[in-house]
Structures are given as structure tokens and as C-alpha cells.
Amino acid sequence: MWTSAGGVAEPAVAAAIAHARGRRTGALGAAGLLAVVFPADVKMARDWRDRPAPLRVAAYGRLPLQAPLIWWALRVASGANRAERSARSLVTVSG
Asked: Source organism's superkingdom (predicted)?
């Protein structure tokens, strides 16, 4: 069930980020999703410690990527927030 939920959440978050109006919400969702799946990634790496080397590298290699990806998603959310405020101020000035 959790894998299916993640499979639905990932494209939904991507679609939200792709549209300017949903970018902040989508980016915050991406950060949350990355944080929530981290324990599962740790478990997978632990479970795969006896697998062939390429699989172990993939399982362990994804762990240090989570923090920069979360940081990036939060930056996108912050940038989207600034862009929304800027757009609103342009409407106010021109209106």
C-alpha cells in the first residue's frame, strides 16, 4: 500500500511543481515526500547489504542524496513564494 501511495504522490507532486500556481505547494510536498521515504530507503539499504555490489551501491548511494534534494525542494518553494508575492505586487501597482 505504501509503495502504491508513493507512486501516486510522486507524479502528483511533479505536476504541481510544473505549474506556477501550484509550485510552492508541490515543492513542499516533494520535500515532505523525500523526508517521509528516507526511513524506507535506510531499511532498503540495510536489507540489501548482502546483495551484489551494484545493488548495494544504488541502495546506499541514494541515502546522502536525500538531504540536498529536500533542501532543493524547500528552495523551490521559497522561490515560488517570492514569485507569487512579486506577481501580486505588480497587479496591485498596475491595477
From this structure: Bacteria
